[in-house]
User: Fold this.
Amino acid sequence: MIHYVCKYTPIELFKGFGEECIVLEEMPENFDVSDRVAHANLCGFGKSVIQAVLEGKVENLVLVNCCDSMQRVYDIVKSTKKCKFLYMLDLPHEDHECEKVKFAHNILKLKQEYENYTGKRFDKMLFLKAFAEREVQMKPYIGLMGVRVSSVLEEMIRRDIKMRVENLTCIGGRRIVALPEEWEDIEEEQMVLAYAEALLGQMPCFRMNNNTRRNQLFLDPNLKGIIYHSIKFCDYYGFEYASIKRDVKVPLLKIETDFTSQSAGQLSTRIQAFAETIEGANVADPGKKIGEEAKERMASGIYYVAGIDSGSTSTDVVILNQNGKIKSTMIIPTGGGAMLSAEKSLDQAVEKAGIRKEDIVRIVTTGYGRAYIDSGDDSVTEITCHAKGAHYLNPNVRTVIDIGGQDIKAISIDENGAVTNFLMNDKCAAGTGRFLEMMARTLGMPLEEMSTKGLEWKENIVISSMCTVFAESEVVSLVAQNKNVADIIHGLNVSVASKVGALAARLGKKNPGEYMMTGGVAKNKGIIQALEEKLGAKLYICDEAQLCGALGAALFAYKKCKNEE
Assistant:
């Protein structure tokens, strides 16, 4: 078996030796093995290759000199002596005639090296049979672009996107335009030259100097959106992303991973929310249709719907009546499980409303725990739900800021409450509700007191680190220096506002209209004041701010019922 890492790898050549070829895309849980021999700042994919070799998962490996990191990977792998066959293929940056000849020479050299290694003879007929015709589909699709994605991430994207997904990354979209039937009677050197031309004739990766065909891709009328993937410490594709962001008009989502299996799960909400922004998308894709019993209750003219927001710190419920008016709400701390907290919060909301649970004809769930709530009929991301809820509470809002328990979201919405764009910080707890809870605990005061105490500040103290751990150390040091607690809290508020304001400003400048803050942190007066100063605009704050996600979910349930009436 031959493992390879690049779509320009001549895998048909190896099939001419009767070998099986497979893309190397190991996603380890961590880099504990590769970190022993590789620099800490080597890209995640490079580390994954090294780790797969060190763990004995790869015996034969063909690399391509696409970047400096890959050259370093080759050097490290070679030094381990773990691979029986290791080869670095020299790939040109151009596709003109001179480079085609050079690349053909490199392929012949690889062929000779493999013959010497295995003692096998190259079978021309096996080589020609390796070229399979690929069906070209003229249907709407989402382009997955940028640097390579793992099969784990690609499968998650295909699952969450309700549209055809084309892998157009540096490893995907391998299409060889070749006519092997015309190669049967020509000399080997001529055949390999034609083969080299076919390999270089693919949709070019970004390392190629001539990207004309790649740029034409953006003009494809069937392209309905782009998910652009980058890997931590890989700046190469950042140049292309900047140009795409500037020039391309279709919806665009940038995701970054470190190429570990742990990073994939963090992206599910962002991918699903992106799917909900695509033109023609069915936001509330029904998990089950409205049953006959529910329809009979709807026919009576008196019925209710509910939205459940299962967050990291609280589980919120909103119940709407048949007229779309709020009947009851409930907020409880999220306990040991999303399902248990959801049922408990819903039961209390039902009791508060003075109705029966059977009177609720449809439930939509949202939040991080939405997938684990069995009682829900539909599931919608919290990004889309917060947008829907915010528009319901104030139709003039165009930018929604949600500081949740473990993430920060800035959401642009249109005049109908639909998401047009969003930015999200989900890498760590910095600037989130959890961050503020930890700081309150460090200062030894309730979170409610901390929310107003910072308004009394006199000295402008700068908290230099946003990392939760380091910020906590700074706070401890400031307390030891007998700094005023109000000044310390103000410094924390400003640091949070700087982080949040940077996200919101990037959206708000291109999306004029009111700002609204949702989530539990909207109760923090110190954060609100600091954020308004950063934005240079007033924030719309309402009593239902923490319930915005659950409200949006309930509104989707209500819309579904109205469409069924």
Remarks:
- The first helix runs from residue 11 to 15.
- The mean pLDDT is 89.
- The chain is about 40% helix and 20% strand.
